[in-house]
Amino acid sequence: MHPIMLPVDFIDSMRQQMGVEAELLLRALQTDPVTSIRLNSKLDVLTFDCDTDEVPWHVDGYYLSERPQFTLDPLFHAGCYYVQEASSMFIQQVLEQYLDPSSVVLDLCAAPGGKSTLISEYLGRDGLLLSNEVVRQRVFILSENIQKWGNGNTVVTHNTPAEYGELCTNLFDCILVDAPCSGEGMFRKDEQARNEWSLAAVRKCAERQRAILMDVWDALKPGGLLIYSTCTFNAEENEKNVEWMAESLGADIMPVDYDRSWGIVEGSVGYHFYPHRAKGEGFYVCALRKHDEFFKPFQPKAAKNKKSNSQQSMANPQYTEIMRSWLQHPDDWALRYTDRFATAYPLRYKELIDALADCLTCISTGFGLGEERGKTIAPQHSLSMAKDLRKEAFPNVPLTLEQARSYLRTEALNLTNVPLGLLLLTYEGVPLGFAKNVGNRQNNLYPNEWRIRKL
Ligand code: SAM
């Protein structure tokens, strides 16, 4: 790796903040970044052609000794793992120590979805995650990653922090604010972060972070948990904001247990991951508990000028029976019909999700189940990604690596000796998506918008 140019003011400010230890940090920023992944429960074993090592603070986290070309791996596209920075997997420890899995959680700044997929996995069948992204261009990749992860316990939304504060007052047991920041912790892998950094940018980020926290604060239940994180080192965006939150918004700072061998550094408040101490990129996290003197239960409010989303438009009982037969646990899911499309979402949160659909901008809810096509019902692609898919409901066709790649490029398929009708295509036993054998050819049903070009 070439030596990277670090901003002079950054070097000075780290020397001021950390004293002699800054030299160790600056040296570590000149070394190669670490590659790590978090395994989905869809897959039992790792199959990489390189050495792997466990991430100590997350049971599903692995360091890879090399960075493979993930895009060439069909299992990557099937959501079998998420390429996630190791330090940020520490969120798991905070959840385990403070959050019951049967909780309603908001991940406010969620795209592209690393922490949302982690939270979704932690909540499993018991909890509900609202995964939000305010930047329009980033919300679709978030929704795609959530669908590929496949838990069905997540609603992806596109709202501002202030809309959440206003429309979801006192709703959430936990809110994660993984704030947009100056990105010092990403310097060794992100040239743009280095180029855009300045002392003024740090100040601006810190202000914006406080505005985000203030705007969303009312959405957190009294007594609820706020997890604040950034991928930057400076105290202005980290400790100072946490202290401001505790004092001005009213919260207690909570200790998080960790193993001393992990190399975590405690700040005056919160926890730092520095690349010269812990194996990963730079990260900061702090947990706070909101004071609970003013409890008023959540009451759904309808947003002005918004059409009801929870309305049902298609409800052919025959189709419902067919779609239920595609699921392992059909009784766990509520079905919603919008135009030709049916969506499955957790039955235990039906009332809440229906109320939220009327006030928030929901991009995806649970997983797409079926689509009315002429006089039949066809499965939607996101069903093939869902962990509750009953695989035996469709003839399974195992693909070779080359066939799998060609399917993901949405090319024509040349499968021989396969039955007529819908087929569930798999790679190493994991579903990749559907195709339809119409006799003289098989139609590739991989979604065009997810098509992998460089494969
Ligand atoms: N949590 C994500 C993950 O683990 O994959 C990474 C989130 S990234 C650090 C911060 C996110 O905040 C970005 O997706 C960005 O678009 C979003 N963002 C930017 N400005 C924002 C604002 N004013 N309010 C809320 N989110 C904002």
Characterise this structure.
- The protein is α+β, with helices and mostly antiparallel strands and 455 residues long.
- Helix content is 28%, strand content 24%.
- The protein has 14 helices and 22 strands.
- It has helices spanning 8-18, 21-28, 74-77, 91-98, 114-123, 136-149, 161-167, 191-196, 199-216, 239-250, 317-324, 350-357, 381-385, 401-408; strands spanning 35-39, 52-54, 61-64, 81-83, 104-107, 128-132, 154-157, 172-178, 220-230, 251-254, 265-266, 271-273, 283-290, 333-338, 341-346, 362-365, 367-373, 376-379, 396-398, 421-427, 430-437, 442-444.
- Strands 5, 6, 7, 8, 9, 10, 11, 12, 13 and 16 form a ten-stranded mixed sheet that branches. A four-stranded antiparallel sheet has the order 2-3-1-4, covered by helices on one side.
- A hairpin with a 4-residue loop joins strand 11 (265-266) and strand 12 (271-273).
- Helix 1 packs across helix 2 and helix 4 (91-98) packs parallel to helix 5 (114-123).
- It starts with 7 loop residues before the first helix and ends in an 11-residue tail after the last strand.
- The mean pLDDT is 94.
- Residues 109-115, 133-135, 138, 161, 178, 180, 208, 212 line the site of S-adenosylmethionine.
